[in-house]
């Protein structure tokens, strides 16, 4: 044959081969097409997240469900935008109506959903199924359509969880919830933390009376201006185990008055079921009755006081810690404050902190944001009579060596000084209980950071370590080399975060060498803040992940598409490997040999 014909046949063969390859690897389905495929195959749940959904998308789902009405029991749409146009406002209702076996419906952060609510309420009211879980969080639903939506749930007597937070709901919705609390005997979880800021004291009281009379609720999240009605509820309720209260008064920085706190404390004293209490943004001037109740509760296992505000920390903080030490049932204690509160902790705060760490009973301590463990916390001011705040941190961290109960410790943004870091490193060499340690934004210095990493290298229980954005003097190369040693020898750490502005290519190459042979780390964050990786670092990480089989989440700084795509493929491969080995539960996943 002439040469031109030979080329033509060869081209034809290439074309046929290409077509065969395309048929073997079909194009990736869109999320909607994937959901339709799952429904047609009889899937029990679908989840759509981060999408732009229009009328055509909903129609495709409805058509699939009408053909397989028994398929779905759970529908979840999160963080998505609706573009329904004229006539599309009924599509959400049609989707729900078509799912005859639906028990769980999640519509969280779906905007705008307001115009679709009436059709959804009508579908729920007709009750072709019995919902057990209903979540419409963070949708800015107004009070008018919100009341209609809640009323549509009256026939769903098997409802277990109702989540309404993050909506513009008012008093009308509050009085629509009350019948649910009185008639739905399966309801255990209720979150209406977007209603309280619209209610008067009497309206909050009416709602809390209904909660107090309820005999099934175990978890409640709410927002209130006044604690007294919540205390009255606690005095009556016999089933509530977890309570989270957001104080609306924090918007005005208004402290709760003594009477309000006393009435809440009285209810807490009378309650015999509560195990986990969170009061967010509690602001007070006199905490004596409430602090006493914290110490006297025989059922409370966790106390959390995030964003705590007081002008009398020199009195309240020592008495609060004393109450925590006195409570024999408490296992977890969290308190975070505005950064300026350290100046008011008062004399003896160091002894109070030391007592908590020495208490071999607590499992969790969180002091994030309390600027109290370093000399920069006070400047020229002598803090409450303490000789040296840095010594306070060192003494507290040193006590960890003998603690056998604490599993989680958060000292982030406490201004923990190098002295505290070195003491902590020494304690980690012998501590056998701590599994989660967070030290973000602390001025530890590079020497102390390296010492902590070297101590973790031989530690066999710690699984999570966060040293992100720690600052201080010293060469950062020492930190990178310590991470390399840790990666080569540690057998327990799965999560390591060390974001910093000081990473260089040299440092990243050193870390990548260690990750190559690591067999335990699954999540690693070595982000170079404000900059991107260059060639040597990219090649080093790519080589490391070619060999490493356990890392499924690696955070580095890059916007270079080819490198990102390659890392993404390698991480996906590791996820597949780990999921395939999940049932066998190997003692250790050995990486491929470097050769």
Task: Offer a few descriptive terms.
disordered C terminus, 20-stranded parallel sheet, alpha/beta, 595 residues
Q: Segments where pLDDT lies below 50 for 5+ residues?
A: 1-12, 375-387, 583-595
The total count of helices amounts to 20
Approximate strand percentage: 15-25%
Mean pLDDT: 84
What's the count of strands? 20
Separation, N- and C-terminal Cα atoms: 48 Å
Residues in helices, as a percent range: 40-55%
Main sheet makeup: 20 strands, parallel
**Alpha-carbon Rg, integer:** 29 Å
- Structural class call reads alpha/beta
Shape: flat
Descriptive overview:
The protein is built from 20 helices and 20 strands. The protein has 595 residues and is α/β, with parallel strands linked by helices. It has a 20-stranded parallel beta sheet that branches. Helix 16 (446-458) runs parallel beside helix 17 (477-489). The chain starts with a helix and ends in a 14-residue tail after the last helix.
Question: What's this, in brief?
Answer:
This protein has about 600 residues and is of the alpha/beta class. The chain has helices at about 5-25, 30-40, 55-65, 90-100, 115-125, 145-150, 170-185, 200-215, 230-235, 260-270, 290-295, 315-325, 350-360, 390-400, 420-430, 445-460, 475-490, 505-515, 535-545, 560-580; strands at about 45-50, 50-55, 75-85, 105-110, 135, 160-165, 190, 220-225, 240-245, 275-280, 285, 300-310, 330-335, 365, 410, 435-440, 465, 495, 525, 555.
């Amino acid at each position: 044959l002439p040469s031109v014909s030979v080329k033509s046949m060869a081209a034809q063969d290439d074309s046929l081969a290409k077509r065969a390859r395309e048929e073997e690897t079909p194009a990736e389905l869109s999320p909607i097409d994937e959901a339709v495929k799952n429904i047609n195959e009889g899937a029990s749940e679908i989840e759509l997240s981060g999408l732009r959904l229009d009328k055509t998308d909903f129609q495709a789902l409805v058509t699939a469900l009408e053909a397989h009405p028994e398929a779905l029991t759970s529908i979840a749409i999160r963080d998505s935008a609706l573009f329904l146009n004229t006539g599309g406002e009924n599509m959400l209702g049609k989707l729900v109506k078509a799912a005859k076996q639906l028990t769980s419906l999640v519509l969280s952060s779906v905007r705008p959903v307001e115009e679709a609510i009436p059709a959804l309420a009508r579908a729920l009211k007709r009750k072709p199924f019995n919902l057990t879980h209903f979540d419409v969080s963070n949708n800015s639903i107004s009070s008018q359509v919100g009341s209609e939506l809640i009323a549509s749930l009256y026939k769903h007597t098997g409802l277990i969880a109702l989540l309404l937070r993050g909506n513009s709901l008012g008093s009308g919705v509050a009085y629509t919830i009350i019948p649910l609390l009185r008639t739905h005997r399966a309801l255990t979880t209720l979150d209406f933390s977007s209603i309280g800021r619209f209610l008067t004291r009497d309206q909050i009281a009416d709602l809390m009376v209904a909660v107090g009379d309820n005999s099934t609720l175990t978890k409640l999240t709410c927002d209130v201006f006044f604690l007294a009605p919540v205390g009255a509820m606690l005095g009556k309720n016999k089933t509530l185990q977890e309570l989270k209260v957001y104080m609306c008064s924090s918007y005005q920085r208004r402290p709760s008055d003594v009477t309000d706190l006393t009435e809440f404390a009285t209810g807490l004293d009378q309650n015999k079921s509560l195990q986990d209490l969170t009061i967010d943004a509690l602001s007070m001037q006199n905490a004596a009755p409430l602090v006493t109740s914290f110490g006297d509760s025989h059922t409370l296992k966790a106390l959390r006081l995030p964003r705590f505000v007081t002008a009398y920390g020199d009195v309240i903080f020592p008495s609060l810690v004393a109450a925590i030490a006195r409570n024999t049932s408490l296992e977890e204690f969290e308190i975070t404050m505005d950064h300026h509160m350290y100046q008011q902790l008062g004399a003896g705060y160091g002894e109070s902190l030391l007592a908590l760490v020495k208490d071999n009973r607590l499992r969790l301590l969180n002091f994030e944001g309390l600027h109290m463990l370093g000399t920069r916390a006070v400047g020229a001011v002598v803090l409450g009579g303490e000789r040296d705040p840095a010594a306070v941190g060192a003494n507290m961290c040193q006590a960890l060596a003998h603690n056998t109960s604490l599993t989680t410790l958060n000292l982030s943004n406490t201004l923990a000084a190098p002295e505290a870091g070195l003491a902590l490193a020494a304690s980690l060499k012998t501590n056998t209980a701590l599994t989660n340690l967070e030290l973000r934004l602390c001025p530890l210095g590079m020497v102390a950071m390296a010492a902590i990493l070297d101590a973790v290298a031989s530690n066999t229980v710690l699984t999570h370590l966060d040293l992100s954005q720690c600052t201080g003097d010293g060469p950062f190369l020492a930190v990178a080399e310590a991470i390399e040693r840790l990666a080569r020898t540690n057998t327990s750490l799965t999560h390591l975060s060390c974001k910093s502005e000081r990473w260089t290519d040299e440092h990243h190459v050193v870390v990548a060498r260690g990750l190559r042979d690591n067999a335990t780390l699954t999540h690693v964050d070595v982000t170079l803040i404000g900059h991107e990786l260059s060639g040597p670092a990219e090649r080093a990480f790519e080589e490391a992940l070619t060999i490493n089989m356990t890392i499924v989440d690696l955070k580095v700084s890059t916007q270079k598409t080819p490198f990102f795509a390659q890392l993404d493929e390698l991480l996906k491969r590791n996820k597949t490997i780990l999921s395939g080995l999940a049932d066998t539960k190997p003692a250790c996943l050995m990486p491929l040999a470097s050769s």
